[in-house]
MmgE/PrpD family protein
Amino acid sequence: MATQQLASWATSLKYSSLPETATTAASRSFYNWLGCALGGSRHKTTTRAFQALRPFFGPATSTVLGHESKAKADASHAALINGIASHVHDYDDTHLETIIHPTGPVASALLAQAEALDRDVGGEEFILALIVGIEAECKVGLAVWPKHYDIGWHITSTTGSIGAAVAVGKLMDLTSEQMAHAIGIAATQVTGLREMFGSDTKSFHVGRSAQNGLMAAVLASNGYTSSLQALEAKRGWANVVSVSNDLDAQIASLGKVWETEKNSFKPFPCGIVVHPIIDGCIQLHRELKAKDLSTARLKSAHARVHPLVLELTGKKTPKDGLQAKFSVYHGGAVGLVLGKAGPAEYEDRVVTSEEIITVRDKITATADETLGADEAEIVLEFEGGAELKKHVSHAVGSLEVPMTDTQLQEKFVDQVALVLGGNGAKQASSVVESLKGVASIRDLVARILGSP
Amino acid sequence: MATQQLASWATSLKYSSLPETATTAASRSFYNWLGCALGGSRHKTTTRAFQALRPFFGPATSTVLGHESKAKADASHAALINGIASHVHDYDDTHLETIIHPTGPVASALLAQAEALDRDVGGEEFILALIVGIEAECKVGLAVWPKHYDIGWHITSTTGSIGAAVAVGKLMDLTSEQMAHAIGIAATQVTGLREMFGSDTKSFHVGRSAQNGLMAAVLASNGYTSSLQALEAKRGWANVVSVSNDLDAQIASLGKVWETEKNSFKPFPCGIVVHPIIDGCIQLHRELKAKDLSTARLKSAHARVHPLVLELTGKKTPKDGLQAKFSVYHGGAVGLVLGKAGPAEYEDRVVTSEEIITVRDKITATADETLGADEAEIVLEFEGGAELKKHVSHAVGSLEVPMTDTQLQEKFVDQVALVLGGNGAKQASSVVESLKGVASIRDLVARILGSP
């Protein structure tokens, strides 16, 4: 019954039933997503996809964010390109219990389709659809976590197709039965192998899952059928993509526990498991300065980390910015040497600079199962015997130490300034902050991009 | 090394190295595919997808076969719709060792892209690309068969994305490294759950895998990267989608054993496992006539079948044509009552007719592990004590009893006449038979559809 229960819950939910904590979390999620999508819009991965697929673009209904001045495409291609852009810096949000990046697949599909409809979509309707999509995605993700991820699936996109279908289906006002079919059409498109991490295809997963879900909702709205037991059947999604699941329990918690509220935002554009080390190294950078110690005299740096850190980000010698996202050693090095780890510190020229490589190669790390995923410890030894130690109990960006609205704004403006300039970015920020009250998402996008 | 070996083999293969048995088998495969795609083009499943997605169509480079008079779309949408049409009657080809329907994903992508290129693609080049695609698809399918299918994956589409990528990549003259990336981008889009069998989404799998592969090749041609170990890595395709595989052995057999030559064609538009029963029942229909026995006096019909028959096609009371494809009971009933089992015998009105239902409900079947997959036995009992028995050692359409060229032609004309009329169908048939020698696939398609 999980598929039909999810469909029924999603189609009947009203904005007035949403707790304000959820709508605020959703607004923050969209705000963070938009900054990432604009910030990643001119990355070479995004540009490669845009140029390769431009000959296939259909009617220009939907904005391809920031790639070129006000470029448009059909909703499906806009969803793909915006989805790629939003994930390409690994700077997007994280549902920590599943390490799903929930907003990418859902918002990429939703924004594109909201622009393409022949009516205006208001802010509340948009937020409602965003929330049902994120809830669907995270609940099915929780149902198969962690076995599904262990097998080798990129859980963001494998669940993202389903979330995007539910969100777009909500926007298109599907019946409960159509919604169940949309869930099935999305579920059958299982996109995302972890083997692709470190290549252009990792962010393709996010864009493709947005397309998968969008197409599923569009097909279902025209009567296309799938299975009404797509998620729970013997050979349905959960059983095929995982060796165990608790789908019924997760679906039963819909509307009781809001996954949207558990969404967290990254202060650093790389895998979240590296964040405790970066946080610690940035703190150490400040202490080094205060003590007049230079990393040039560093003998060794040893880190103790959660086991997943080495499994996911154990790359010793990353060759470029993409690979560096999977290197706890690069993250630690830029933290220690530069005192920050923003998109600029993941550019190829920084990853290959001698100063960073020298420090990076002095860093060692061991897995420690007693540590939490947002916890780390690092010990520095210097020539002459000086030693510094830092323990991070909860990294910045964790649920315990969330990014503040001001920090989110700084992150947004930093990224968007690359495309719209400093003033444009600040203007865009204030426009997006008004999301809840806007009458038309189409107008919102035009105002963000600086239309009259 | 499997991914790079496959890429290297596919990019370096020349038409002159192909045995004529392979090029002839490929030509027959394309011929059969085209008939199925035209024959399925006006099925409601195809029409639903066409109408739902038409607002997304890009520049009209590629033919949407038969759906409307000379409709065109961008190559990706043409690949999707033609792929759906070619599979919707379950009448397409079968690689018996894997029950992959190989031509659907590959030819749907290839034809659409061949029309979209800004140069003419000749018949030999087209056949070469078709063969490398089918070989890629069937070799990776063999590598994970049968565990992959047992888990619940629709092996036609999960391997079809890879086959389509290799075929289109060959047509686009990718380098070996680009081809490896294309394989990876295709492999990460694992489309097709068996749970969808019996719904519109089963044939969507075939169309979507064609799109997946086409997009993978197009992205890779523009420098988009994936993994050079996409198939064989610890968390690569084969390990994630199956619990065991012999990828290395299968890849090593490329160019030594031609899977294309093992392709078989269906005389009946339904799951191939039902064919022995249908074949036997059609033979029994003729014997009943000769003996002046009527199915109106049938007391019972009991079949012994391969175990997969009941697992895949055990539907006792199908409600429409789609469900009937998964009912050995319906297949047996139309064979006995009508003496044939073409597309007309799978129309809804036949499935719900009282005459068919009455006979259908008298049929029982038991699984017998001693029988081959193309073998069956059926025993009829009549009021008054008459008994008839039929043993089918190898069903028509099996490798032992392949369809002849004449039978293939009849099948083609039967299907294509629905769209182009009887004369148009015969004209189309003679045009497609000239495939090997044509200078331009674009012209071939125009001539098939009756352009001047």
